[in-house]
Design a protein that fits this description.
Largest sheet: 5 strands, antiparallel
Distance between the termini: 86 Å
Helix content: 40-55%
Number of strands: 8
Number of domains: 1
Strand content: 15-25%
Shape: elongated
Length: 236
Amino acid sequence: MATEIVIVVFVILLLGYIIFLHVQLAKKNLYIETTISRLSEIEKNLSPEQMRHFLNEIRKTHRYSSFFTEKLFEEKPLHFLLGNAGDSRVFIHYTKEQSDAMNIIKEGFRFADSFYKTALPVSRDRLDLLVKHNSRKSFGDYLIVLCISDILFDYYAGQLEKNDLKAFAVENVLTETPPYRNENSDMIYLLPNKFVKGYINHQTGEIAVNPEYNPEFNSPVFEKNLQLLNNLKNKT
């Protein structure tokens, strides 16, 4: 009899705990839906100060504030990230180790086949940045900032189109080292470190600036790359 009572009590407690978890999940889902609804109504041209105020408001109103304790949307990191957005293409890439981030600053950004597999374009659209950051921040605390001058980018994009080289992207041209195939037969490219502005630790707000950064860097090798691609196309 005593055993049956214990089992009944255990089952009741278990059911109670399950109900508690369902209630907590429902609250969290409601919070997320409400937050997304509010974000959707935000003007896309919010200033860094206005965005920071909005995120601080969310932090104060709910215990799920851990999602908003990062430093990326503070004034200094945000300005470092988007300061060139008016005249340059800006991209972000995440990495876990500081040593890897420093190597990218020193050596350049290495990517396989498509630049856009690991580099996300960003703009002054804060909502778009927030969504992209939340989708990728688990890849690492170190956010690499890549910038390519609009003038430079548009020039080579125009040359690719003019020469009917639509299978290639601008980033495939902007390399000073010959691409090569890795053990997986992927074509590996190296974007020069001149296009690496630096990195932001989005957890601490730490910023590392690349002293060699130059988004307008135009190596003579880039034109040779174009000619090489054009010659290969004509041979096929």
